[in-house]
């Protein structure tokens, strides 16, 4: 656990940490939602493959904007609210980070049979289960959430790198096309 604590020192201020089973988590309450929430958000996204409609883009954009008043502490907060806003931000961030890779991977191009209501309901249930896990969990849940958070950190890193790879491919293709047209 000390290793995870050291890793998260790079990305988390580690104030307001949850203490489960007598041990603090290696990240703060908001980061619990942000990193553990990334794994859950990715699973929900992959399970439902929501189509990028205007409504979905706006909803997830609002999830990201929600962090402004809460992340900058314009609103008084409890630990539950910190974690919840981290979770909601994670849902929005994973959704947007999955748009390009999801469109490029053939297997994920077709949306699933379930609609937006099932996607949001499942996401909401996972938010509640995560909150319950923190509220009533012991040392085993501490270990689970710590490693889930680490996997969430890897999820973000992988999605960012994948998006950069797709974008660089697009830029190089555009430059090649411009050079070909300039030569003609």
Give the topology, please.
Blueprint: H1 2-8, E1 17-20, E2 23-28, H2 29-48, H3 54-65, H4 67-71, H5 79-104, H6 116-136, H7 139-183
Antiparallel strand pairs: 1-2
Helix pairs in contact: 2-5, 2-6, 2-7, 3-5, 5-7
Poorly predicted regions: none
Fraction of helical residues? over 70%
Within the largest sheet, what's the order of strands? 1-2
Percent of sequence in beta strands:
5-15%
Q: What is the H/E order?
A: HEEHHHHHH
Helix vs. strand class: mainly alpha
Q: How would you characterize the largest beta sheet?
A: 2 strands, antiparallel
Distance between the termini: 61 Å
By DSSP, the count of extended strands is 2
Could you tell me the radius of gyration in angstroms? 19 Å
Work out the helix count: 7
Mean residue pLDDT: 89
Shape annotation:
globular
Properties at a glance:
mainly alpha, 74% helix, globular, 184 residues
Describe this structure in words.
With 184 residues, the chain is mainly alpha-helical. It has a domain at 27-137. It is built from 7 helices and 2 strands, in the order αββαααααα. Helix 2 (29-48) runs parallel beside helix 5 (79-104), helix 2 packs antiparallel against helix 6 (116-136) and helix 5 (79-104) packs parallel to helix 7. The chain is globular and about 70 Å long. The model has no long low-confidence stretch (mean pLDDT 89).
């Amino acid at each position: 656990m000390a290793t995870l604590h050291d890793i998260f020192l790079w990305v988390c201020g580690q104030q307001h940490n949850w203490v489960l089973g007598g041990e603090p988590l290696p990240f703060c309450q908001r980061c619990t939602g942000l990193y553990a929430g990334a794994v859950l958000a990715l699973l929900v996204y992959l399970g439902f493959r929501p189509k990028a409609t205007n409504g979905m883009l706006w909803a997830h954009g609002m999830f990201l904007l929600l962090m402004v008043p809460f992340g900058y502490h314009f609103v008084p907060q409890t630990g539950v609210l910190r974690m919840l806003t981290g979770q909601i931000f994670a849902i929005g961030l994973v959704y947007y980070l999955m748009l390009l890779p999801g469109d490029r991977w053939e297997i994920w191009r077709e949306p699933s049979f379930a609609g937006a209501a099932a996607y949001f309901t499942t996401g909401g249930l996972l938010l509640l289960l995560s909150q319950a896990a923190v509220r009533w969990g012991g040392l085993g849940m501490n270990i689970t959430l710590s490693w889930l958070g680490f996997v969430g950190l890897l999820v973000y890193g992988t999605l960012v790198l994948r998006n950069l790879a797709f974008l660089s491919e697009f830029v190089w293709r555009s430059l090649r096309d411009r050079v070909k047209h300039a030569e003609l």
